[in-house]
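In response to reviewer comment 3 from the previous cycle, which asked for concrete evidence that the modeling workflow produces usable outputs, we include below a single protein chain processed end to end. The sequence was submitted unchanged, and the resulting structure tokens are shown without manual editing.
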Amino acid sequence: MTKIAKGKRVTGADREKLAQELAAKYRAGASIRELSKETSRSYGFVHQLLSDAGVELRGRGGATRNRKGGKK
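The workflow returned the following structure tokens.
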């Protein structure tokens, strides 16, 4: 993983390289939250980077709630 100092702007070639690395990990199953923690960057930053790289983002995971009157 490309190491970038915390708080440093990520631009140009560094941004492209990081985007490709994160895209590969995301496509392999890592979550945005996991990638955010690994890179010490915000969820929003990682989400935007993946979107800018053309990655098709997965839908939300986790439990869903049953609505009253709905199918169970």
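Residues 12-27 form the longest helix (16 residues). We consider this sufficient to address the reviewer's concern, and the full set will be provided in the supplementary archive.
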